[in-house]
Amino acid sequence: MADGVRVIVLNGGSSSGKSGIARCLQAVLPEAWLAIGVDTLIDVMPPRLQLGAEGIGFADDGEVTVGAEFRLLEDAWMEGVAAMVRAGARVIVDDVFLGGIESRQRWEKVLQGFEVLWVGVRCDAEVAAGRELARGDRVAGMAAVQAELVHRGMSYDVEVDTTRTEAVECARAIAKRITGAEDR
């Protein structure tokens, strides 16, 4: 892929390393890239939507559900991301495709007309669960539930695995697909 890539979409389960890869991509890519994650969307939602049936819900077993009001705000957020790209920004999206192919299709719709690099971020469920425990800000079990779920039926331009590979090495592999050369 040439320098026409304007959007990098990182899809992976909770605690798979997407945010670390996004930060490293910002460091290794020659142009300025904004890193935008679904966690930021959740953080700016009203508290009643952060833990409710109409918003986003977290079950004791780690399952995540989203309600109609969350979906409405998420759609607006996605359109906002696309607007930033239309205005000239390069954007790294850090997301969790809980809806599988449907989640990707929603991004494809709003990003239509842009060159997008689709990246699968994998991590062994046990390693992700250990990271989740160390973070202390996630519902226990979420990482294990999502480790494979978010990748079902997906195809990617690039896949990386953070189980034993550092974020910077993953970022360099992704950057190579954009720049066509080894980066810093």
Which features does this protein show?
184 residues, 8 helices
Describe the structure.
The chain is of the alpha/beta class. The protein has eight helices and seven strands. It has helices spanning 18-28, 38-44, 47-50, 68-86, 101-110, 125-135, 142-149, 167-179, and strands at 5-11, 34-37, 56-58, 64-66, 91-95, 115-122, 158-161. Strands 2-5-1-6-7 form a five-stranded parallel β-sheet, with helices on both faces. It has a two-stranded antiparallel sheet with strand order 3-4. Strand 3 and strand 4 form a beta hairpin. The model has no long low-confidence stretch (mean pLDDT 90).
Record the SSE blueprint.
Layout: E1 5-11, H1 18-28, E2 34-37, H2 38-44, H3 47-50, E3 56-58, E4 64-66, H4 68-86, E5 91-95, H5 101-110, E6 115-122, H6 125-135, H7 142-149, E7 158-161, H8 167-179
Helix pairs in contact: 1-8, 6-7
